[in-house]
Design a protein that fits this description.
Helicase ATP-binding domain-containing protein, 7% strand, nucleic acid binding, transmembrane helix, disordered C terminus, alpha/beta, 4 strands, 4-stranded parallel β-sheet
């Protein structure tokens, strides 16, 4: 089967052995230091792919930060600073194309709390009261991160996807078979939000410093559901502390 797999990849087994990998013998010129560096590189990959927990102690001592970790942290801090210093009302006007738009009612204090980085933030607003602006404007203002929206209703997910796309915000529904890699907003059902696949995806977002916010939309629907998602939502809510 290995030979068949090599032929399927358009090369012979000889070429595969010479070009793509080493045999069981030790690589020529290897040193103890080189093998230690190989192990550090493998550890970085394992943690990036969530095969092991971030910060897990290595037998070589304290793990050095990889260059991509520093870059990801700088990007996260830039998004936080951009959100904290931006005139969000002016940003909402640019986003919607309505120069006379103003935050109204609960929108204003809720947006200020989000801008200050408070967590959790609870906003009780009527239907069509502008709740979605509370996560659309930050995603529009400080792109590069990911906002998770737990949406219990199918109709809401379709409408929210359409609205985000019209505003130029990348928004996709969660699919375990095709995890989104670079979306500003990801819509997920309560059932999927507590699944192992999605938890792994969340851990990856946290590890790469891309998780900005977790928003539970229509939380009264989740709390009143006969399947009782309250314990799972409480578990998910603990991750809100990772938001910017």
């Amino acid at each position: 089967m290995g030979h068949i797999a090599d032929l399927q990849a358009a090369h012979s087994s000889h070429v595969a052995g010479m070009v793509y990998g080493w045999g069981i013998q030790e690589q020529a010129g290897s040193t103890t230091h080189r093998w230690e560096m190989f192990r550090l590189s493998s550890t970085d990959w394992h943690q990036f792919l969530v095969f092991s927990a971030p910060g897990h102690p290595s037998i070589l001592g304290k793990r050095k930060r990889a260059p991509w970790e520093d870059e990801a942290e700088v990007s996260r801090m830039e998004r936080r600073h951009q959100l904290a210093t931006m005139d969000l009302e002016a940003a909402a006007q640019r986003m919607t194309g309505q120069p006379d738009m103003r935050f109204r009612g609960v929108q204003d204090p809720a947006m200020q709390a989000i801008q200050r980085g408070e967590s959790p933030v609870v906003a009780v607003m009527p239907t069509s009261g502008g709740k979605s602006m509370l996560f659309m404007v930050p995603a529009f203002t400080a792109p590069g991160g990911t906002t998770i929206i737990v949406v219990p209703l199918v109709v809401l997910r379709a409408d929210m996807t359409r609205r985000c796309q019209e505003l130029g915000i990348s928004c996709v529904p969660w699919e375990s078979r095709r995890p989104p890699n670079a979306a500003s907003i990801i819509l997920v059902t309560p059932e999927s939000a507590v699944s192992p696949d999605f938890q792994t995806f969340l851990n990856r977002l946290r590890w790469t410093r891309r998780l900005d916010q977790i928003v539970i939309n229509k939380c009264h629907v989740v709390l009143n559901d006969q399947r009782d998602f309250r314990p799972q939502m409480a578990q998910l809510g603990r991750l809100v502390q990772a938001r910017i």
